[in-house]
Write a structure and sequence with these properties.
six-stranded mixed sheet, alpha/beta, globular, 10 strands, 232 residues
Length: 232
Amino acid sequence: MKVGIMQPYFFPYIGYWQLINAVDAYVIYDDVNFIKGGWINRNNILVNGQVNFINLQTYKASPNKIINQIELLVNEMYNNKLLRKIEASYKKAPYYEEVIQLIENIIKQDEKNLAKYLANSIMKINKYLGIKTQIIMSSEIKKKYNLKGQDKVIDICKSLNATEYINAIGGIELYSKQDFITNGIQLKFLKSKEIKYKQYEDEFIPNLSIIDVMMFNSIEEINKMLNAYELL
């Protein structure tokens, strides 16, 4: 049983989906602290050849709250403005017609809880891309809440009977392979290979939101990208 664990993000970049696709069960880490100024409620898209933010409006978001305690401001006017920004940026992209319907369906959902909103969006994009990985909310797993960091991750893995835990390469300094082996779990790190595709006639800008990837690439092309990584 291969397991991955990560906080939920707003339309995250391709590496996030590589991790989901690489495991049997993916845990949305919704019961850890909200990171203000991070990627949980915002991301980057391409606007006139430049990087530009899109974000979700939150109500009294604070690092003192866990992610599933954060409430969204469901504002139809703001959602329409956000959607128009995405439409204007990608209306000439080759897969615009297929993808914009998916994006609209996600943005116009009525869910006010940030964690559930993001989980819904992740599952909708998984379905579009054909990713079959089981999605589990961390808050629904029985675990020891007095644990932190690596110990908490190991406890979640043991609760799911994981034999292998795959983490993004950014966590390579945070975890000990020996500590995982002691608990009967093999630890691996996912390192993405270079991913490049045509973005209109502009110079390529990497690591933008999955929106950008979907707008410029077919599902078949994206599936190749999902496997463009190595495990260390």
